Amino acid sequence: MAAGGEELEFLSVEDGNTETTGLAGTIEQQNIPRVDSEPSGAASGNTTTNAVAQLFNSAAHPRIAILHVFFKILAIIVYFIPTFYTISYVKWFIPLVIMFALDFWVVKNITGRLLVGLRWWNDISDDGESEWRFESLDDPNAVNSSDYSIFWYSMYINTLVWGFIGFWSALGLKLNNLVLIAVGLTLQSSNLVGYWKCSKDAKQKLEAGVQNFVTQNAMSVLGSRISNGFSFGR
Q: How big is the chain by its Cα radius of gyration, in Å?
């Protein structure tokens, strides 16, 4: 019973699939469409994961590509183990150094040769000086583009990651960590510099080969024209 003796009248109207209830009138209920949206962060993460998976699937040597990044990722995981578990410094230090050494050896002797067709090493001359030696494919176009991207991107990204970790450890004055990071960066930068020099040497050889080819063809054409000119004069 309402004030003033007036009763409130509730109306119920059924029309098809909708039912509306009003107070002395009709209140319409609107069917709001449901929007299924995915968070932008999750969407971008899925996109990145799919892109990486597609890159490895399109590689000419997918198993070698996985081996190329395996010890890099494993070293980072091992480095952060003390953050979640209590472990002695020695039991943490030795496995990490082994990961660094294995990554260095695998990249220098296996993945560089198979993924990008490059190989480098050092020889000691009779004077005691270190000399760089390089090997590369005669045809750089024979290298698969996905193999090339996986090789170089992982090398650069891994070096940047450990450089950032080293910088963060320096800010926290974690001297023991810095010693370990210095070992890893030394091995990784050695491979990076070695392959960069090797790639540069391969490009110079390719340019020299193209120049020699053009020069030889030009001389051959010029010689044939001169010979034809003399023959025509006779």
A: 34
What is the band of 211 on the pLDDT scale with cuts at 50, 70, 90? low
Question: In the structure encoding, which two tokens stand for residue 8, read together?
Answer: 């409130």
Residues 9-48: b if buried by 16+ CB within 10 A, e if exposed? eeeeeeeeeeeeeeeeeeeeeeeeeeeeeeeeeeeeeeee
Per-residue pLDDT band for 8 (boundaries 50, 70, 90) equals very low
- Which helix (H) or strand (E) covers residue 140, if one does? none
The SS3 assignment for 172 reads: coil
3-state secondary structure of 134: strand
Burial of 118 (0-12, 13-18, 19+ CB in 10 A): buried
DSSP string for residues in 181-215: HHHHHHHHHHHHHHHHHHHHHHHHHHHHHHHHHHH
The residue type of 93 is F
Q: Mean pLDDT, to the nearest integer, of 94-105?
A: 96
CA atoms lying within 13 Å on the CB side of residue 176: 9
Q: Which tokens hold the place of 160?
A: 């940047």
Cα–Cα distances in angstroms (integers) from residue 45 to residues 54, 70, 149, 226, in the given order: 14, 21, 20, 66
Strand, helix or coil for residue 39: coil
Strands 10-15 and 118-124: unpaired
Q: Are 201 and 120 in contact (CB under 8 A)?
A: no
Half-sphere exposure of residue 42: CA atoms within 13 angstroms, side-chain side: 3
